[in-house]
Amino acid sequence: MPAQDTDATVVVERVGAVLSVELDRPDKLNAASPQLQADLNAALRAAAADDDVRAVVLSGRGRGLSSGGDTAVLEQLVTGTAAEELQRELSDLTAERLRLAFAELVKPLVVAVHGFAIGWGAELVAMADVAVMDDDAYLQEPHARFGIAPAPACELVWSRFVPPGVLTEILGLGRRVPADEALRWGLVARVVPAGSARTAALELAAELAQVPASGLAAVKRAVHREVVARLA
Length: 232
Fold this sequence. Notes:
The chain is α/β, with parallel strands linked by helices and 232 residues long. The chain has one domain: 2-enoyl-CoA Hydratase, Chain A, domain 1 (Alpha-Beta Complex). It contains nine helices and nine strands. It has helices spanning 34-49, 71-79, 83-104, 120-127, 152-158, 164-173, 179-185, 197-208, 213-231, and strands spanning 10-15, 18-23, 55-60, 109-113, 116-118, 130-134, 138-140, 176-178, 190-192. It has a six-stranded mixed sheet with strand order 1-2-3-4-6-9, sandwiched between helices. The protein has a three-stranded mixed sheet with strand order 5-7-8. A hairpin with a 2-residue loop joins strand 1 and strand 2 (18-23). The chain starts with 9 loop residues before the first strand and ends with a helix.
């Protein structure tokens, strides 16, 4: 493996045919800075272009997957400073991530959740092909509390599984969704003992990497066709 860029906010490692991508801003709880988003997009684009990579695992270092957006940006939204412009910028970034996840990355993306996945972090989970979650972790989409719309991935993907009344409560109140409830609604595929989500995700990704790439690509197209059409 080549040496990691000391300024990078993600750590990338090959594990056989699996590419492990770890968010690496633990001092900021992996908050979604522009640099982090750029580094993550670059890592996923590289994975898409590398024929030797058959699956990708996304996880976070530190206390949780991600605490969401940068606090400074949210504070500006709350105070109304350039709110419309900032919301457009956030929407553009979200659309870019969605296009990347659903259109460009034809390989399976497994997201490991430990601690918490809030806002942007919850969106990463929604964009995963498979999400594996520690049994003491939680999801949370609190954008409504800041007077802005929920992350599109959460709104579009979660609405396929969660009854409208329940989803209104989850998104409207911005409440925490514990692992057992996330599994019950189908927001994650597996719940594992605390501290083992990344290991379980790597094991699952290694299994998926053994499936013919053409077959997995066909599965992704079939599973995500409806969401991609709504985002187009």
